[in-house]
Amino acid sequence: MSRISVALLLSEQDINWMSDILRQADADTTRVTDVKQGLQAWQAAPADLVVCDLDELGDDAELIWQRMEQSPDTEWLLLSRGDPHPDWNAKAQQCVATVFRRPVDPELVQAFIDDTLMQQGQSCRASKPILTSQANQFGYLLGSSAPMRHLYRVLKRLGPTGANVLVVGERGG
User: Fold this and answer.
1) What integer pLDDT is reported at residue 128 of this predicted model?
2) Ramachandran region, residue 121 (left: φ > 0; alpha: ψ -120 to 50; beta: rest)
């Protein structure tokens, strides 16, 4: 069984703690500092997981979105300060990316990575199953309460099945 391949497009402040998490997960990690160079590398060898800092992309954001749309089998973990990005939000919803807003708890990201490994049939360092997602946003859904994180986890598992899902509940305010 091959190791998970991860592409990192992160700021310097995030690269150290994220590298530690991925080292623990025994992932093959590639750091990309230039978006265009990264896209060429991903074309040759697609990553299983791309971790991207939304706030650092600038004019190259559209190139990343095009790649997301072309890579439905790639898991996308996006980091954000939480500033309004209407275009990003719409595209993240279309591509069903997982968004973590700063400040990011590394343990929650570790749970996400472990869950990604579990979905690929690899063992992960956690001995107990991950029962909830720790994300703040999943597709069109937004919220960080325990019930919402549980819903994200369920939907993530249902996604590959092609099952129809109707989500009902109260609207937040």
Assistant:
1) 39
2) left
Q: Rounded CA gap, 12 and 16, in Å?
A: 7
Evaluate if pTM is beyond 0.90: no
Instruction: Looking at the chain, list the stretches that DSSP marks H as alpha helix, in order from N- to C-terminal side.
Output: 12-24, 35-44, 61-70, 86-95, 106-119, 146-158
List, for the chain, all residue ranges whose pLDDT scores fall below the cut of 50.
123-133
Helix axes 146-158, 106-119, angle to 10 degrees: 20
Taking the C-alpha atoms of residue 93 and residue 62, their distance in angstroms, rounded to an integer, is: 15
pLDDT at 15: 87
Separation CA 145–CA 30 (nearest Å): 33
Nearest to 53 by CA among 30, 81, 29: 81
